Amino acid sequence: MNNVLAQLPEDTSMEHFSDIIKSENVRIERIVSYGQSSPEHGWYNQEEHEWVMVLSGYGIIEFESGEVMRLESGDFLNIQAGRKHRVVTTSADEATIWLAVFYRQKDY
Amino acid sequence: MNNVLAQLPEDTSMEHFSDIIKSENVRIERIVSYGQSSPEHGWYNQEEHEWVMVLSGYGIIEFESGEVMRLESGDFLNIQAGRKHRVVTTSADEATIWLAVFYRQKDY
């Protein structure tokens, strides 16, 4: 893969996660969603910070605090490590393509 | 800024660099180009690896080795630290928006 918008997976029954860069301190991932909410149960609770952007479609993210954010094309968000969150839904009409950069602080 | 495609700078006489995330091991930057080549003289020769993607417009990157690559929307490229490169040109008709992730290896 050398274009994040191309070669979309055909199976729309699940989300698809692809590592683009995997280094010691940073991981860049493409996520393709087809209307899914995730995780199926509970919250994402990550050891790394996550900077995430929507490239196409849209996604709605909920935080444990109750805050809800809708991200559309070009919108981005920085999620601190340990901040519990989940994807409530994504576009049902088209693929939602996310770009996520997971990173650690030096003293982490 | 919370949308990489919005709030484009008005001054088209120069390139515009904006840090989105600046952490010890990773820096995420938006670059908006209006037809510029860069750097003005010589090559970029960076201490960090750079993963770069074009979000709109296009850019042509040349490497010291002679290799030339044209990046359009969604195309990305990983440029190893120390690999000399430059931007030959970008779209003259519209803003070229780049997303760049600069990162270091742990043992760097």
From TrEMBL, chains A, B:
* Protein name from the UniProt record: Cupin domain-containing protein
The record places domain Cupin type-2 at 35-102
Query: Highest taxon of the source?
Result: Bacteria
Regions crossing the membrane? none
Lineage, top ranks: Bacteria, Pseudomonadati, Pseudomonadota, Gammaproteobacteria, Cellvibrionales
